[in-house]
Amino acid sequence: MPYRLMAAIGEFDRLRSVAGLVAPLEQRLGLVPLSRSLVEELGGPAPTRNPHPSQERPFSLLSPGFDQVLGEWSRGGPVALVEADFHGGHGYQSARVWRAGAGVWGPAHTWDFGGPRQGWPINAALALLGAVPGGDRDLFLTVGLGRESDEDGWAWLATRAAWAGTYDEWYEEREREREETARAAREADGHRRRTDVPVVLDGGAVMDVLGLPPGPMVGAAIRHLQDVHAERGLTSREEAVRELRAWAAAQRTDA
To answer: How far apart are CA 241 and CA 115, in angstroms?
Structure first.
């Protein structure tokens, strides 16, 4: 499954004050998914899209005007511009960080991911934003950048969080929904959740993928993923998401 990302990342509440729709990440961070139309709306005409980013020109779409916009956004705290494009395990990352109105790090770009993960461009940029590693996961996964795989997915998450006035409001509601989902999964229809099979996607992730409220449907979705995992394995989050969406479509057809 291809993975594509071009986004500005910074503190959620601050980005909401300047950029409107922001997808919440972990550790109080937020992500503004960037399209050509948004880059041009904020920073004026953009150059022809660069199909082959390199160290000399690391981003596929960045104009001088939007560079200034990112500098302005950074006056209240650091902001990173990140880009990634992967398919079949091969691809690239680019990143740059602004603080107090000026670029302070980067741009960094690589196609070679043989070195330490903390040195990869996006991980390095996230560290400069203050992100803290979680266990044996790198910062990319710790802050939730694996949650979606393209601009449309991130835009959808940003729209779902538009009701929240602050990061704290969003976070408290998410935790409440996860608690309700866990309880509903235990109680729904007398079915017991399997304890012998790993949970591929937790309740919060299931709700994010399918746009569901807390309730029995979330528990049923988790049990379906566990059953599939037990039968033939689910080797990646992307495969689990595809399986979950196909299952949900079948439920709507059968209803």
So the answer is: 29
- The dihedrals phi and psi of 78, each to the nearest 5 degrees, come to -65, 145
Same domain, 233 and 182: yes
Q: Distance between CA atoms of 127 and 19, rounded to whole angstroms?
A: 22
Q: Are residues 11 and 99 in the same domain?
A: yes
Quote the domain boundaries for residue 223: 167-254
| pLDDT of residue 194 exceeding 70 | no
Total-model pTM: 0.75
How large is the average pLDDT for residues 91-105?
97
Is residue 38 in a domain? yes
Choose among 254, 255, 242, 247: nearest CA to 218: 247
128 plus 48 within the same structural domain: yes
- Residue 24 pairs with which residues in a beta bridge? 30
**What distance in Å separates the CA atoms of residue 213 and residue 227, rounded to the nearest whole number?**
22
Query: For residue 152, what pLDDT is reported?
Result: 92
Answer whether 65's CB lies under 8 Å from 52's CB: no
Q: pLDDT per residue over 14-45, tens digit each?
A: 999 999 899 999 999 999 999 999 999 999 98
Question: Do residues 67 and 89 touch, judged by C-beta distance below 8 A?
Answer: no
Mark whether 184 and 116 lie in a shared domain: no
160 occurs within a structural domain: no
DSSP single-letter state for residue 101: T
